[in-house]
Amino acid sequence: MWELVEASAAANPDVVVLLDGEDREITFKELRDKSERVAAGLHAMGLRSGSRVTWQLPTRIETVIVSLALARLGAVQNPIIPIYRDREVGFVLEQTNAEFFFIPGDWNGYDFNAMAERIIDQIGIELSVFITYDELPEAEPYTLPPAPTDGDVVRWIYYTSGTTSSPKGVRHTDGTLMAGGLGLANAAALSGDDVGSIAFPYAHIAGPDYLMMLLYRGCGAVLVESFNLEEAVSLFSRKGVTMAGGGPAFYQMYLAKQRTQPGVPIIPTLRLLSGGGAPKPPEMFTEVKQEMGIPVCHGYGMTECPMIAQGGPNDTDEQLMYTDGAPVTGITIRIVTVDGVEAPQGGDGEVRLKGPMVFKGYTDSSLDADAFDEAGWFRTGDIGHIDATGHVVLTGRLKDVIIRKGENISAKEIEDLLYQLPNVGDVAVIGLPDKERGERVCAVVERAPGTDDLEFAEMVAYLKSEDLMTQKIPEQLEVVDALPRNETLRKVLKQDLRDTYRDKPWAPAPRG
């Protein structure tokens, strides 16, 4: 990765690569130079190749510099999105055996330093905690050892909730992340004249995906530290952003803003919306095209494989509306039926993958046997097919996971917590289609005999007391006499629940 940083600085030394809402700009050469000085500063603090670093930082120029400085050193870095709290962060710090923890201090109304102290006391780990927000350590680069040259060493660990109660650590290399970024760069067809935007957490797997695209294509992007629609639209207009998005929730927000001023583009330079992370309703493409005059180029990826398929500006409206894009450069996709044979073209089956962007297994290696088949194909757990034009069409999921605003939420984790309440006889947590969120979280609770019904406010308060992050707390609660079950093993029929509540009128209630 550092070789790519060096090459980009040499090819586009004076091109601005990162911009922000404080009207700061940094060129490719400045990014290289600053990252190298910070790497030397971190080296002086004791960080070395192989040092285990967890960082939980917001989307800002300093965060990108920190991540590249760690890449220059060859450290093993574990980015965590800022919304995670004690429960998730403690698990991750313990499983990765982190030596260093970089945090923003007090940020966005939350004291990360206090959280770090609580976690250290609770799990008893030795951990050096540093605030790396607007001031970064620097030293002379000549003090640094040579940059790492082996792109196949695992130096990145990203966590995804997956289908189990505990998060899963996903092991990546410089090479896998660069391959994902190249796939996005080729599909998005950006040029040096484009200005992208990172309005999502840079600590998400999409962060390096996007950064690699900028390095490969020699173009810049605007960073948004804390997303606010009005501020983002104003900022993107001032900076001439040509590609915005992040996922269906973002598409919906931009569309809602556009409806307040029909006929007058909210961002005059914008030429497309792009993103992924959650299902996109076909009608959303039509609405954006009709009302904003630009296409939605939706994509398909996951923490284990940052880029799988991506819609591009050269695709037809029908392809952009009904598919999740064409397979990106380097990926090979196989569709496998429940019988374990390759599905005919157009036939549904599990999506399985091979390619240079596929991860190197989980931190808990016992999970690898189920993740890969006997021939080494990664089993995504998604159901879909390849259409006649070679594009990917997703139709469902094997895994019991809810994708809310691009983040995987484990139903089992929430179910395990709610089951402990005395007025919960049994519980099933499901994802329901939601135009704003992709999916919303719905808890269907079976009444416990002789108790009062679980109230929404009671559920929210309890889950917060268990340190469950707000984004995982259900937006919807349904209380029933009995959950539907099959006749043999009495397994809860979650699809029946989805069918029951899919179209039921629903109004959001406050969770925070």
UniProtKB/TrEMBL annotation:
Keywords, comma-separated and alphabetical: Ligase
GO-annotated biological processes: fatty acid metabolic process
Domain AMP-dependent synthetase/ligase stretches: 6-362
Family in the record: Belongs to the ATP-dependent AMP-binding enzyme family.
SUPFAM superfamilies: Acetyl-CoA synthetase-like (SSF56801)
Annotated protein name in UniProt: Unannotated protein
Domain AMP-binding enzyme C-terminal: 413-487
Entries under Pfam families matching the protein: AMP-binding (PF00501), AMP-binding_C (PF13193)
Source organism of the structure: freshwater metagenome
Gene Ontology molecular function: any one: medium-chain fatty acid-CoA ligase activity
